[in-house]
Design brief:
The complex is a heterotrimer of chains A (about 260), B (about 325) and C (about 375). Chain A is an alpha/beta fold and about 260 residues long. Chain A contains seven helices and 13 strands. Chain A folds into two domains: about 210 residues, 3-Layer(aba) Sandwich (Rossmann fold); about 30 residues, no CATH class. Chain A is globular. The termini of chain A are far apart. With about 325 residues, chain B is α/β, with parallel strands linked by helices. Helices cover about 30% and strands about 25% of the residues of chain B. Chain C is of the alpha+beta class and about 375 residues long. Chain C is built from eleven helices and ten strands. In chain C, α6 packs antiparallel against α7, α6 packs antiparallel against α10 and α8 packs antiparallel against α10. The chains are: A alpha/beta (about 260), B alpha/beta (about 325), C alpha+beta (about 375). The interface between A and B is large, with 91 and 107 residues.
Chain lengths: ~260, ~325, ~375
């Protein structure tokens, strides 16, 4: 099975977020961009399938500023991906999920692809728009929020679950297919030190993303705001557990108005 | 001009998901005082769904009668939504920001050549452009995006918008345009749906109240303290990664960076220290309460209210007090 | 001009170690400290990821890192748990004499199995009668035909109860002092080799330390490292290589103490404001930060010097001595910042003080480091 796994460099969860002086968007200065948890899970899923199906290969692709994509792609190589492709695009194209999907398509069409895997949503923007947009652009079926993805060799179909508001769905789908994964239900492996060292010298291919029509639909960041700093919890003083409970319930109903 | 808005009804039981009503509410606002708001519903169980849309003031409903679309991949449905949006001359397609709506939105945007955003908590027009605000970075910040190009697809975050109060109408019903669906999109088959048992409380993703337990509960059998409080509050149960990693509770309950992101009205964290991994999954909750025996635990930095103390004493007392106040 | 920035490559190594430390070590650090448990499952994972034999070249299956790379990793591991780190890096110390003095045939015989499988090795130099005065060691080696016979006792030997191989320093002629010592490689299976029982320690309780007795242990000549009489110099050259990572280990402990103290100071309130807004605490934190920063830079500098092929005795002694003294001081101040809570075992900082203490003692007590520093220093004035 030829598997393409799409990776997005996102700010480290421990990063302190702040807006640019003009207030329009996140200030990337000094921020570390890493392989997000959701994407680590996608790489792990791809590697599990590769290990289960002889003759498989995993191709990692990533779109964004080159310094960031290269780090993420090297991390993927260190984990065991077979090839890496960086997609270069204009900065504006990084900022619209549909344009991101178009960039990913450009790379995917140059690679053998039976299965395209993505994390559920990128750890920074939490959009979840890309899997569907990519499926439509490639003319392939797509599913987001997938858990427990397996390959059924007998029927030559993917089998997976989806946890939706309706309940736990079970599906089967033939290849080719685009799959957006739900949370990290697998336990992503850690790259070994020697593999990390080796990944530093791995080649990274380059693909240029297409530019969309100038007046076409798009989106751009207009304002990035931090919530007022949380000043820390108002601690409830009490002598007995019952008193703590009574005070909290009163606060929640009268002050915070979330109860009953 | 009065922009026309199409709301995609999300099936839920016999009727519509609550988030569809919220989307209808914001649709009325964005369409203007008498702008047209249309609804789209699937064929099965559509009678009650159409009635519900009417109660929220939706005067025109398109019904998808192609049984092939339901139970097929989201791709098949996306084409139907795009076709319906063109039929009603919509500028905006609204979906509920649930699994269903979020998964569909990107696909609809491409099929209908529109700009898109998921999980909006605030929407307003800026001339021809649409401004959509939503939490990003796990609730550590909010971003406002400007959607451009004249056609927009937006899913609304559950609980972000009020259910509309409108005079009920009796909607006109017509068949949604049926376009050809490429065979490739009909290949996937849904094998079954196991409904979430009704006694188990609301689903984590759309619960108004979430009660989560962490390492501080110390043993799997103690987790029932968390569940009893959740049950008394009618809340969903969540867990920190420590709990799901240890196998005390299934991974589907995990709240955090690698689990689910939740944003309920009230989040109660019990015995959770407040690792950033967890915080990014719940920081957009409206009110956060933390119960922890360590007064220096990081969770108290993000919580609105805190009780420093022994959870094995505090939580049962709290459960009893909730039951007393609610008379249950 | 020196470049203090870390390349993406160095960052990726450090990040990997950080992730391992935070996800695998931190959750068990308090428990292992409390119960003095040797968490073999964690050490096995560290081995599987290549974190254990950092100094063994890739040709033998090791990771083959420069000293600077090793230091970045050791600091991250020690941030999570000093004791576990000591056990994880003990192989580097025990295998270093082999890297320095073994013949190509000997290297092929000893090293690959350590990299392909989880095995621990122990460095056996210190004796009950003296650690710092290594020239006075009493473990005897007598030549009998094509074998040596070893008799004596070593103490404070890291990982000894769990090791499968021991690098042992013994004297052929006590009267010759330094010039009478030779080094040997002895397998656990050798008859007459007996590790003692695990010692109860103040800190580093996730690590394991015991005596090792040698009662007529027969060692083939083929398992001698280098020539007779070269053992003392080999031990010193080994410690020149491994001293710097102890500076990194101490820096990791100190950074953890600073982080705990600063976070606590922002949270804890007295007199109506966070204690971080009181100048007394600010001065404390500022001094702690200086100590941590200086420790790290001295360690990096020593590693950089040795990586350039210089001996680095002065630099590594300064780094080890300064960073370990700093770690003890910073951990002490962290406890003071926490006040009464800091003295409680329920909070993480008292462990840091107990763990930091050892870094002043092992791999050359700081008194010896100062002797070395003074000697190297005065040489420049003579």
């Amino acid at each position: 099975m030829e598997i393409v796994v799409c990776l997005k460099p996102v700010p480290d969860a421990e990063t302190r977020a702040r807006p640019l002086p003009d207030g329009t968007r996140f200030d990337p200065e000094g921020v570390k961009f890493v392989l997000a948890g959701y994407d680590e899970s996608a790489v792990e899923q791809a590697l599990l399938l590769k290990e289960a199906i002889p003759g498989s290969a995993v191709h990692a692709i990533s779109l964004g500023a080159r310094s960031r994509t290269d780090e993420v792609l090297r991390a993927a190589i260190a984990l065991g991906c077979d090839s890496a492709t960086a997609i270069e695009a204009s900065p504006a194209a990084f900022e619209d999920p549909i344009a991101v999907a178009a960039g990913l398509r450009a790379a995917i069409e140059g690679l053998p692809h039976d299965l395209v895997l993505l994390g559920k949503q990128s750890g920074d923007e939490e959009e979840g728009l890309v899997p569907g947009a990519l499926g439509e652009l490639l003319g392939l079926p797509h599913f987001g929020f997938v858990v427990d993805l397996r390959w059924d060799a007998t029927s030559q179909r993917l089998r997976f679950g989806r946890s939706t508001e309706a309940g736990e769905e079970s599906w089967e789908a033939p290849l080719p297919c685009v799959i957006g994964l739900q949370q990290a239900w697998n336990d992503p492996r850690t790259a070994k030190l020697p593999a990390i060292l080796k990944s530093r010298r791995a080649p990274i291919a380059t693909v240029r993303a297409p530019t969309g029509p100038p007046e076409g639909p798009t989106s751009e960041p207009a304002r990035f705001e931090l919530p007022p700093p949380r000043t820390g919890a108002k601690m409830i003083e009490y002598r007995t557990p019952a008193e703590a409970a009574t005070k909290l319930v009163r606060i929640l109903s009268e002050e915070a108005k979330v109860f009953p | 001009m009065t922009p026309s808005v199409l709301v995609v009804g999300e099936p839920h039981g016999d009727g519509l998901a609550p988030v569809t009503a919220e989307a209808v509410g914001v649709a009325h606002v964005l369409a203007g005082a008498d702008g047209p708001v249309a609804g789209l519903v699937g064929g099965a169980g559509s009678a009650s769904a159409i009635r519900e849309l009417g109660q929220f003031g939706v005067g025109r409903v398109l019904r998808i009668d192609d049984p092939g679309v339901e139970g097929a991949s989201p791709g098949a449905l996306a084409r139907a939504v795009a076709a319906a949006a063109s039929t009603v001359g919509a500028r905006l397609v609204l979906l509920g920001g649930t699994t269903f709506g979020r998964d569909l939105a990107g696909r609809v945007a491409v099929a209908w050549n529109a700009a898109a955003v998921n999980g909006a908590t605030d929407l307003r027009w800026d001339g021809e452009a649409l401004l959509a605000r939503r939490p990003v970075l796990g609730g550590r910040a909010t971003e406002t995006r400007r959607l451009l190009g004249g056609r927009y697809v937006v899913s609304t975050r559950p609980h972000a918008f009020p259910v509309p109060e409108r005079p009920p109408v009796s909607p006109s019903v017509e068949a949604a345009p049926a376009g050809p669906v490429p065979p490739l999109l009909l290949g996937p088959k849904r094998l079954g749906v196991k409904a979430v048992p009704s006694g188990s409380g609301p689903a984590l993703a759309d619960a108004a109240i979430v009660v989560s337990g962490g390492r501080g509960v110390r043993a799997p059998e103690n987790f029932r303290l968390v569940e009893e409080l959740a049950s008394a509050l009618g809340a969903a149960v969540g867990a920190s990664r420590a709990v799901t990693d240890a196998g005390w509770r299934p991974a589907s309950l995990q709240v955090g960076q690698t689990g689910r992101t939740v944003a309920p009205q009230l989040y109660i964290a019990i015995g959770i220290s407040g690792a950033i991994q967890h915080l990014v999954g719940m920081m957009s909750s409206r009110v956060i309460v933390a119960i922890n025996n360590d007064p220096a635990a990081s969770i108290f930095r993000v919580a609105d209210y805190g009780i420093a103390g022994d959870l094995f004493e505090i939580v049962p007392a709290l459960t009893a007090e909730v039951r007393r106040v609610r008379g249950t | 001009m020196p470049d203090f920035s870390l390349s993406p490559e160095l960052e990726s190594l450090r990040d990997m170690a950080r992730k391992f430390a935070r996800t695998e070590m931190v959750p068990h650090a308090a428990e292992c400290d409390r119960s003095a448990r040797f968490p073999e499952e964690i050490y096995r994972k560290a081995h599987a990821l290549g974190l254990m034999n950092l100094n063994v070249p890739a040709e033998f299956g090791g990771t083959g890192l420069s000293l600077l790379e090793q230091c970045l990793i050791v600091e991250e591991l020690a941030y999570a748990c000093g004791g576990m780190t000591t056990s994880i890096i003990a192989n580097c110390l025990a295998l270093e004499p082999i890297l320095l003095a073994a013949s190509p045939e000997q290297k092929q015989r000893y090293l690959p199995s350590f990299c392909s499988e989880y095995h621990l090795a122990s460095f056996c130099l210190t004796e009950p009668g003296g650690g710092s005065d290594a020239g006075a060691l009493r473990t005897r080696a007598r030549r009998e035909g094509e074998e040596y016979v070893l008799d004596g006792e070593k103490c404070f030997i890291t990982n000894a109860p769990h090791a499968s191989l021991y690098t042992v320093f013994a004297t052929l002629d006590p009267a010759a002092r330094h010039r009478g010592i030779a080094a040997f490689v002895v397998p656990r299976s050798a008859k007459g080799l007996t590790p003692g029982k695990d010692e109860e320690k103040m800190g580093h309780r996730a690590s394991s330390t015991s005596t090792v007795r040698f009662d007529g242990v027969r060692v083939p000549v083929a398992d001698r490292l280098g020539a007779e009489g070269e053992g003392f110099a080999l031990a010193m050259r080994t410690l020149d290589q491994t001293r710097t990572p102890i500076g990194a280990l101490a820096t990791g402990i100190a950074q953890a103490a600073l982080d705990h103290a600063a976070r606590y100071a922002l949270k804890r309130e007295t007199f109506g404001k966070p204690i971080a807004e009181h100048q007394a605490i600010q001065i404390k934190l500022a001094n702690m930060a200086q100590a941590v920063h200086a420790s790290r830079l001295l360690t990096w500098h020593a590693a950089w010097t040795i990586d350039r092929g210089q001996k680095g005795t002065l630099e590594s002694s300064i780094a080890k001595c300064f960073a370990s003294d700093a770690a003890l001081h910073v951990a002490d101040e962290a406890i003071q910042t926490f006040g009464g809570y800091g003295y409680m075992k329920e909070y993480p900082v008292e462990k840091l003080l107990r763990d930091a203490k050892l870094t002043q003692i092992y791999e050359g007590a700081n008194e010896i480091q100062r002797t070395v520093i003074a000697r190297e220093l005065l040489r420049g004035y003579a």
